[in-house]
Design goal:
The protein is mainly alpha-helical. It has one domain (about 10-305): Rhodopsin 7-helix transmembrane proteins (Rhopdopsin 7-helix transmembrane proteins). Helices cover about 80% and strands about 0% of the residues. The protein has helices at about 1-5, 20-50, 55-85, 95-125, 130-135, 135-165, 180-185, 190-225, 230-260, 265-290, 295-310, and strands at about 10-15, 90, 170-175. The longest helix is centred in the middle third of the chain and has 34 residues, at about 95-125. The protein starts with a helix and ends with a helix.
Length: about 300
Amino acid sequence: MENYNQMSTDFILLGLFPPSIIGLFLFILIVFIFLMALIGNLSMILLIFLDTHLHTPMYFLLSQLSLIDLNYISTIVPKMASHLLNGSKSVSFTGCVIQSFFFTTLAVVEALLLTSMAYDRYIAICFPLHYFIHMSKRVCVLIIAGSWIISSINAHAHTVYLLHIPYCPSRVINHFFCDVPAMVTLACMDTWVYEGTVFLSTTMFLVFPFIGISCSYGRVLLAVYHMKSAEGRKKAYLTCSTHLTVVTFFYAPSVYTYLRPRSLRPPTEDKILAVFYTILTPLLNPIIYSLRNKEVMGALTRVSQRICSMKM
């Protein structure tokens, strides 16, 4: 291993699982979760596309969330699987940087999209008469395009830094994917300035959006409390609680991970927390939004009936 580290430019990912029977069982579980996430998010995208009742701003944003989750989990799990099946933990420097770029881009896009979805619910409940003015098709497209552009610029800045720092001979990354902070620990230079930029980036794209989401839902809950219709209150509470569940699963572990100084971040804890926002969240999002949403379940019934009638 020592000679390999001295002569190779490849990185070595230690992975998530220990080489044991328990590790193999957990790996099979992760692959199962990956397949279920693919099926769930693809089904959500197709359902929203096929059912005209779901052609609204809220479900357009939800379809984009499913698309992001689809790419998000695909950036991580297939590489993990290939490493375990091939018995090799090495990843090229270029491959590591590319994975880091896509992961960072998708993570920020998802954070901004969840914020946009909170804004959508805020307008729908607090200003229902102005909903289709503030959330027109043009506005939705601008939100999506802006999220991707901002996220790409942010990821590009981090990637450029990774490409230009000197790395120590030991290329062992104690993680299951090429996470930027995990790669920076291998730098043979003082990185405190860059760690400050990571803190700033996390604050801008995770903390501020989370505060915005919290304020939006605080205002929404106040408006729901004053609703005269019991059915309207129930529907609003259900929609908001669904979105807040998704937000908590994504934001809580992400903020806790990236805001802490490097000295207070045990690698094992980082990997466990990363499972929540890289693997579990893409699985849970379509489940939460379908099982707890009568409109989605109704659309599923209609599309299923339509398919069955076509076969007959």
